[in-house]
Amino acid sequence: MTSEASWEPVRRVRTHEQVFAQIQQKILDGSLRAGQRLPSERELVSALGVSRTSVREALRALEAMGIIEARTGSGQDAGSVVTDKSTPAMTNLLRLHIALAKISLADLVETRVQLERNAASGAASARTPEDVRRLADLVDAMRSTGSDYPEFNALDTEFHVAIARISGNALAADLMQALRGAVEHEMAAAFARFDDWRAVANSLVDEHEAILRAIEKGDSDAAADQVSEHITRFYQDRILNAD
């Protein structure tokens, strides 16, 4: 006789979860691609043999996750479309995971350092004159930004993401964007505590300049070391010690 321990409870899956799973699987296997329109609600109801309510619940869940976007109007572009901008979805999920799993600041810093060391090293090897000009433009823009911290932070983020793009690692760029977005509120709160945030920002720009010069020279080791020191110094000296 089979023991009770060898049995597993049967999970009751609601209909809209099954619809959700089918759409998700079609994205994973390539049947649905970024920018492609999903069948209409009526077509999904007919094809899947479920109620319109179940279809709508699944679509709402996918939209909330940032996997699809609902486009209004009529014609070919209307309806639910698989998004080609998945980074915001990754950012939201990462932000929730950090909060729920209680990821420490030390773990975040360590992860970011490793990610950005590799990106900076790769960028120094792969950079083109156009890449260097793009980074230099971002440094100049950060230096000339006035009293608008959000604008400075956006430029700062783009500088680091651009380095990852230059390295040729698309996933690293997306992860970096998501990681920065996940801690954006904490960063804003930290800058709000500074007596003179612009002075801190000017110091950060000088460090960005050093990273840029190492990349421009093609010095992979120096670029990796510069970005590592830049990140570590900011969190240790200006965030942890400020508290």
Description:
With 243 residues, this protein is mainly alpha-helical. It has 11 helices and 2 strands. It has helices spanning 15-28, 41-48, 52-64, 87-101, 105-126, 129-144, 149-167, 170-182, 184-193, 197-217, 220-240; strands at 68-71, 79-82. It has a two-stranded antiparallel ribbon. A hairpin with a 7-residue loop joins β1 (68-71) and β2. α4 (87-101) crosses α8 (170-182), α5 (105-126) runs parallel beside α10 (197-217) and α5 runs antiparallel to α11 (220-240). It is elongated. The mean pLDDT is 87.
Kindly state the percentage of residues in helix. over 70%
Shape: elongated
Distance between the termini: 63 Å
Please state roughly what percent of the residues sit in beta strands, choosing from under 5%, 5-15%, 15-25%, 25-35%, 35-45% or over 45%. under 5%
Radius of gyration: 23 Å
Count of alpha and pi helical runs? 11
Structure summary, number of beta strands: 2
Give the strand line-up of the largest sheet.
1-2
Largest sheet: 2 strands, antiparallel
List low-confidence stretches: none
Order of helices and strands: HHHEEHHHHHHHH
Provide mean pLDDT, rounded: 87
What class do helices, strands and sheet pairing give?
mainly alpha
